[in-house]
């Protein structure tokens, strides 16, 4: 079986296709990657301006690494293998749980 696509690889392909820098983009579509993305890795933290991120139709099991996406408003994760929604929340410095994004 082929090795999974990493977020970093998918972002590189997206940049080649669109001609935009991922760090500047407000909308990024990484859906239906071949081979599929399996992990939401730390490369997502480079998407500080992203408001809409599509990761649907991959093989992601765990929501993670959304803390750096301060402008994220829409996250599309349909048709993945998500087991729980724990990664949608982040601990604040005061120890309270806050939403990492608006749903």
TrEMBL record:
Transmembrane segments: none
Annotated GO biological process: outer dynein arm assembly
Keywords for this protein: Leucine-rich repeat, Repeat
GO molecular function: alpha-tubulin binding; dynein heavy chain binding
PROSITE patterns hit by this protein: LRR
GO cellular component: cytoplasm
Alphabetical list of SUPFAM superfamilies matching this protein: L domain-like
Keyword Cytoplasm: no
UniProt keyword annotation of Repeat present: yes
InterPro entries: Leu-rich_rpt (IPR001611), Leu-rich_rpt_4 (IPR025875), LRR_dom_sf (IPR032675)
Domain of life: Eukaryota
Protein name, UniProt field: Dynein, axonemal, light chain 1
């Amino acid at each position: 079986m082929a090795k999974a696509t990493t977020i970093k690889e998918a972002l590189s392909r997206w940049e080649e296709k669109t001609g935009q820098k991922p760090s500047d983009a407000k909308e990024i579509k990484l859906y239906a990657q071949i081979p599929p993305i399996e992990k939401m890795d730390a490369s997502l933290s480079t998407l500080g301006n992203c408001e809409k991120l599509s990761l649907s139709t991959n093989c992601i099991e765990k929501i993670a690494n959304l803390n750096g996406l301060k402008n994220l408003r829409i996250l599309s994760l349909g048709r993945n293998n998500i087991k729980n929604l724990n990664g949608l929340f982040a601990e604040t410095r005061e120890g309270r749980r806050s939403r990492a994004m608006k749903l």
